[in-house]
Amino acid sequence: MASPQGSRAPLEFGGPLGAAALMLLLPATMFHLLLVVRSGPARLLGPPPYLPGLQVLWSPRMLLLWLTWLGLQAALYLLPARKVAEGQELKDKSRLLYPINGFQALMLTALLVGLAVLAGLPLGALPEMLLPLAFAATFTTFIFSLFLYLKALVAPASALAPGGNSGNPIYDFFLGRELNPRVWSFDFKYFCELRPGLIGWVLINLAMLMQEAELRGSPSLAMWLVNGFQLLYVGDALWHEEAVLTTMDITHDGFGFMLAFGDLAWVPFTYSLQAQFLLHHPQPLGLPVASVICLINAVGYYIFRGANSQKNTFRKNPSDPRVADLETIPTATGRQLLVSGWWGMVRHPNYLGDLIMALAWSLPCGVSHLLPYFYLLYFTALLVHREARDEQQCLQKYGLAWHEYCRRVPYRILPYIY
Ligand SMILES: NC(=O)C1=CN([C@@H]2O[C@H](COP(=O)(O)OP(=O)(O)OC[C@H]3O[C@@H](n4cnc5c(N)ncnc54)[C@H](OP(=O)(O)O)[C@@H]3O)[C@@H](O)[C@H]2O)C=CC1
Ligand SMILES: CC(C)CCC[C@@H](C)[C@H]1CC=C2C3=C(CC[C@@]21C)[C@@]1(C)CC[C@H](O)C[C@@H]1CC3
């Protein structure tokens, strides 16, 4: 089948074979983590304690609970927003509109969950439901991705993403064909990227904390830290929701299995691994060590937020007094590249801050197990790969100016090392 785009984009992720392998590997890894984290040895690289049968994984009640969660988040998405933002310019020169009410959705979810807990909702029972819930999330993701794939068949060529339209159904199903699939004004990719998964993640963390309080009298200091750090991260993402509109996920990648599974299943069920670990493997943590860990998280957050805000402010208005003094490189597109401030230190200072925070999220779990460091390892691989993809796109966009930027700022993420 010919590519609808005329010229074929180079295949990523190892082509159709790589895509097929990832579609099996990613859910398998998620279930492996969910199983080993509750086992005695909790070995990342060891075998799971048992292989759950379909009677353990499949539960119509959990499917209903999962769909109710998605429905609640969809309803909150549709509430009036404090602001409606314009997305980046599309191929046909139009711009889509996006509601900015993610933080409001987080607050309303917190209020509803608080009221439900007061009314007797046993949130502490959630840890026991994670396996069937994750199965329901994975199952619905496959169905949803099929819907997205079929929907793209009737989409105009201008609505298709640069990748994900190779003509190979497995590869295209995985990568996603349509750039911004919508039904009326409901944008599936934007909705999934920030709400059900991220808010679900902190809700699972909270359930671990409540269950720990029930089992041991009070939540441990380690559990408080993990909950606090990750709530800050999710709250920050939703507070700065508009910034997601310039990420490659929204502007470049199609919406298919990779992002749908990542957003809806991978994020809530694997990003909450540290809290799950602490529930099953309590770790003593003294105040002095906790203070050092808080400091590491604060340094990471300072770099992450400083770098992201500096770039966002600059992209919105290069003459803004907060960024007007920074040194820049002009490019043929008319846009400029920052070459001092955070973006003069390394080419991805925001990734550096994010990785430092990832370390701080694992440290409360002690150093006896590798398992709680899974996020740090996975995230390093994700960001190194993401950086390489972004580099490729920037080279295409900015050509010689990008070469000049790389010459002036030679390190990618870690100064003097990488
Ligand atoms: N927790 C998680 O799982 C994940 C977290 N993240 C986080 O999300 C955030 C967004 O990440 P991501 O979308 O990957 O990438 P970035 O926010 O780093 O955006 C990259 C883009 O920034 C612009 N840019 C690059 N260099 C410069 C410069 N010197 N001056 C001005 N603009 C520049 C370019 O776009 P242009 O020139 O077109 O503006 C480039 O394509 C990051 O903080 C990241 O850590 C990301 C992925 C997963
Ligand atoms: C399943 C695969 C391994 C790949 C999945 C990738 C996704 C989990 C991530 C792709 C980009 C993401 C972003 C975020 C969360 C993870 C995913 C969805 C943020 C929302 C995290 C908070 C930041 O402040 C913004 C991020 C934007 C990109």
Measured between the Cα atoms of the first and last residue, the distance is 41 Å
Report low-confidence residues grouped into runs of 5 or more: 1-6
| Beta strand count | 6
Give the helix tally.
Answer: 16
Bound molecules: NADPH dihydro-nicotinamide-adenine-dinucleotide phosphate, ligand L3PRFG4B
Radius of gyration: 22 Å
Biggest β-sheet, characterized?
2 strands, antiparallel
Estimate percent helicity: 55-70%
Mean of all residue-level pLDDT scores: 94
* Shape designation: globular
Provide the structure class.
mainly alpha
Strand content: under 5%
The oligomerization state is single chain
Organism: Canis lupus dingo (dingo)
InterPro entries: ERG24_DHCR-like, Sterol_reductase_CS
EC number: 1.3.1.70
Transmembrane segments: 17-37, 57-79, 100-123, 129-150, 218-235, 255-273, 285-304, 355-379
Describe this structure as you would to a colleague.
This protein is mainly alpha-helical. It is about 60% helix and about 5% strand. Strands 1-2 form a two-stranded antiparallel ribbon. Helix 8 (about 195-215) packs parallel to helix 11 (about 255-270). The longest helix is centred in the last third of the chain and has 30 residues, at about 285-315. About 35% of the residues are buried. The structure holds NADPH dihydro-nicotinamide-adenine-dinucleotide phosphate and the ligand CC(C)CCC[C@@H](C)[C@H]1CC=C2C3=C(CC[C@@]21C)[C@@]1(C)CC[C@H](O)C[C@@H]1CC3. The site of the ligand CC(C)CCC[C@@H](C)[C@H]1CC=C2C3=C(CC[C@@]21C)[C@@]1(C)CC[C@H](O)C[C@@H]1CC3 has 13 residues, from helix 7 and helix 11.
